[in-house]
Queue: 2 jobs
Job 1
Amino acid sequence: MFLRTALLVLRKDAAIEAKSWEVLTTTVFFAVSAVLVFSFAFVKEGEPLEDAAAGILWIAVAFSGTLALGRTFERERYAETLRALLLAPAPRPALYVGKLLGILLVLGIAELLLTPLVALLFHAALFARPALMAALLVTGTAGFACVGTLFAAMLVRARSRDVLLPILLYPITIPVIIAGVRGTSALLASPPDEATAVMWIGILTAFDVVFVTLSLWAFEPLMTD
Amino acid sequence: MKRLFAPLLVTVAVLFVAAPYFIAEAPYESTMGLVQKIFYFHVPSWMAMYTAIAVCALGSAVFLFKNNKTADAYAVAGAEVAVLFGLMGLVSGPLWGRKAWGVWWQWDVRLTTALLMELIFVACLLVRKYGGPGSEKLAAATALFGGATAPFVYKSVDIWRTVHPKTSVVPELLKGSMPGSGLPFALSAIGFVLLATLLMMVRVNLAKRQMALDELYLDYEE
């Protein structure tokens, strides 16, 4: 029941997305523009600064993730469909998980494009240890998205939600971004520092566990009027 | 306010009479000298902040799950006092760091996470102020996450290698690692935590009165 509801919500979001491509195209385009903006700051005389790639990758993910979160829930607000979802006789945490999976899917696709782009433009060896890099991206994105989904869902009802989402989201998720950046730059070192990267993946997993538990726990009372 | 007179008197006595005298009498630390005495204000500020965070997070959790309005009053009070004492810690830290490390700010794990923790509670207050109706719940959720990061911040110095001293400094000091400084430190710590508690009690009182007033307005309009 729980898993089926979550998958149904995911399928609904995917079906809407497949018709309009709105969130995916805007997110990917924004991520690419963010990378270009960073290139002005971190490229000196045609050579990118050392270690810049890790930071650029993660900040692009965080920025475009905020955009995707805002858009996904703006759509739910438009025709009060979030209220309709909440009225459904389904466990509320399952709705949360469904929305979270949708966001993760969008961010995952964006990262699939973003990572090679950053690797290419900033001469970064992001694919030296593909498995560890993937683990970093998965755990980091999950930590960012699970807090983001909770706060974006709550903010649907609030005034000035566009401003409040980053204000609330960044202070809480910066530890995740820091862990992602440190882990990635450990992998970028030559030779790649695997032990450090694994340590950061462990910390990210700890964050994920704490954040997902708190979000699942708090979603029900937060979404009740 | 009359009920608070006696505890207030104790706080004033500890903070403004006993602690300054004993801090002045405390010995100079061998390498840092006089600046080390910021310690007697810096660490107690953070202790007061952790107390306020605990009150805020507990209040928020009870408010969220039991929908208890009084708990919300504790959450506001905790958040405001946490921001206040966090600010004191963030100001006194760099003053000490400038002398001890030669720089005002060092981006090590403890300093960065402490700044983040302060930002989380500032965000909590911002949401409450500008979020419109229903923002108390948002603020409560933010406080819950803030409360979850607090232990990470506290333990960060033991996990990572940082320039900031470890958490073991305080218990060692109280056991007498630096003779003559245990008592002034204990007095400052008690004074700061007492002050934070008093401020929170006053703020809770104010919040309760605001709630009562709001209810009266609603009744009057009906």
Job 2
Amino acid sequence: MWVFAVCYNRKTALYAVAGTTQKKIDFQKSALIKELALTISSAFGKIFATTGFSAIGPGEIVMILIALTLLYLAIEKEFEPLLLVPIGFGALLANLPLTHMMSGDEGGLLYYFYLGVRSEIWPPLIFLGVGALTDFGPLLANPLTLFLGAAAQIGVYITLVVAVLLGFSLQQAAAIGIIGGADGPTAIFLANKLAPELLGPIAVAAYSYMSLVPIIQPPIMKLLTTEKERKIKMEQLKPVSRELKIVFPIAVTIICLLLLPAAAPLIGMLMLGNLFRECGVTKRLYETTETHLINIVTILLALAVGSSMTAESFLTWQTIKIIVLGLFAFGAATAGGLLLGKLVMVMTGGRVNPLIGSAGVSAVPMAARVSQKVGAEADPHNFLLMHAMGPNVAGVIGTAVAAGVMLALFGESALMTPGHAEALIGQGADFIRSIFFG
Amino acid sequence: MENLTAALVVTVIGMSVIFAVLAILYVSILSLERIFPYKAPAQTAGDDTETVAVIQAGITAYLKRRPG
């Protein structure tokens, strides 16, 4: 009994001690767990703070959705995939927070790609490749088509006026207007010079509408021409000598750049590329330029343009206005080329099909293919492709000249200011008065 | 209003310059065409089947007459 009692008491005592210890341990455990939980949550908090989720805002989410839409259009719908895939991906990279891809201080990769745009290296290099890919033969065989390329530039200037009416500054309006030239590198080049804050929307509008040329142009072409006009068959193009093809790029460089030195980076590179192609003694340079060089620069340029599409610069009312103005510019340029095409048709006694005028909006060779397609719809035996290539390549020169004019008027030297405009009009009026009234 | 006036002036100047530059190019192309006219490539003996036949007949005749 005593033993039992002692044992019982010891057990109870032991239990009591054990209970106290257990309580202590439980207390310590719970404190430890609390501390651990705090440490883990703070660690997770710190890790979360380093993830993009902590910094993502509604603007970034919208931009990521836009980037994914561009990728969808490029991959699924095949709208200019060579350009829209890198542009869309560049936009995606630039809008994923905390990647610092566009940060100059933190050595962001896309920032260095963008320097190529800012220092005007990529667009002229693209033009070098375009020159190597371009055959000026159809233009040389029918030089009259030069004027169709010139007429299409009216879209650039009408859009400039409309953009000013919508409240854009003259420089911004000039950069927006050049979308009507349907020439991506020229649009980027000019936007970077005159309105770098609008580079992203302008580049996207230019390339998107270039890919939509087969949808935008045909209704305008059918509206402005009759079935009979669309059926006009053109004579086969005459052959051109090799010497003429070699001398042409040199002559264009001298003539254009003496008249418009501001267009030198674009026209100079375009014609050098073409000289590589035609001279016959620079096969390796020609082959590199028309393939590897233009492909590499396209990747760098398109990524840089995509990376400029950040939420704060892209999600503005200005962007919506630019997208609408871009469409208007394309339409006006198509109409301008077609209307001069009709005039040339009348002047030549119906030997020129006015449909080739719409190819004056650069977009080589897409616009020429559209002329061919619409002509063949009217008469399946109508072959306009090579005839339309004339105004098409003339459009490239015309847009580069238009860009040169804009740079001369609104560039760093800024020849044109509102005050100058009125003074010019006054001088013009005085001149006309002096002619008619002595 | 000032900007609109300037934009209209730029339109007139711009289109005039583009047409002027391309008109100069047009005249240049016409002049260069006269200096470097297209010449159809000269026919070689290989293209002339009659000449080839005569030469082949001559060679055959020579081989027949050749001793050994």
